[in-house]
Amino acid sequence: MSEQPQPIFAIEKIYVKDLSLEIPNAPTIFLERDAPEINMQLGGKHESIDEGLYEVLLTVTITAKIKDKTMFLVEVHEAGIFRIRNLSDEEIDPVLGIGCPNILFPYLREVVSDTVTRAGFPPVILSPVNFEAIYHQKKAEAHKNENQ
Questions:
Q1: Given this model, what pLDDT does residue 62 score?
Q2: Among residues 33, 35, 52, 99, which is most buried (max CB within 10 A)?
Q3: What is the predicted pLDDT for the residue at 145?
Q4: DSSP readout, 85-120?
Q5: Which residues of the chain are under the pLDDT cut of 50?
Q6: What are phi and psi of 81, to 5 degrees?
Q7: pLDDT at position 80, please?
């Protein structure tokens, strides 16, 4: 009897792949005293880059507005390279869709807060995200679309 090889999971690298900051109404926007409305859009994807190596990418776009004026817009692409071996495709998918984003999100949150603060605004602290719920929702939508 041959033993099943042990699953391998390792973080090879975590990095900022892309970072963008826009302050279209500077300098007058700094004189505004009203609290901005903050809008967040979050996305993610992953791809195989070599056998057992995957890049997982989280993308967030934060837009802060006061009335109809954009205070700032920041977009961050936080990425990680993960070594994942000895798992079936069914087992790898939730690791890439839930586990890896959970690892990347605190880094992404720090980059957003730091960038906004360095731009001269109060920090934006992103609320935690339930990547497991997002993963299962996407799977349910994909399954529903397959059956139509």
A1: 98
A2: 99
A3: 84
A4: ES--HHHHHHIIIIIHHHHHHHHHHHHHHHHHHHTT
A5: none
A6: -105, 125
A7: 98
Tokens of 126: 């992103």
Q: Domain spanning 8-146: which CATH class is it, in words? A: alpha beta
| Joined tokens for residue 30 | 């700094």
pLDDT value of residue 4: 78
Which two structure tokens, joined as six digits, stand for 48?
A: 């195989």
Report domain extents, the chain: 8-146
The pTM of the full predicted model, rounded to 2 decimals, is: 0.91
Alpha carbon distance 98, 86 (integer Å): 18
Distant-in-sequence contacts of 73-76, Cβ < 8 A, 24+ apart: 73/20, 73/21, 73/22, 73/24, 74/19, 74/20, 74/21, 74/22, 74/112, 74/115, 74/116, 74/119, 74/124, 75/18, 75/19, 75/20, 76/16, 76/18, 76/19, 76/20, 76/108, 76/111, 76/112, 76/115
Q: At what angle do helices 131-146 and 100-118 cross, to 10 degrees?
A: 120
Q: How large is the greatest C-alpha to C-alpha distance in the chain, in angstroms?
A: 73
Per-residue pLDDT tens over the stretch 42-55: 999 999 999 999 99
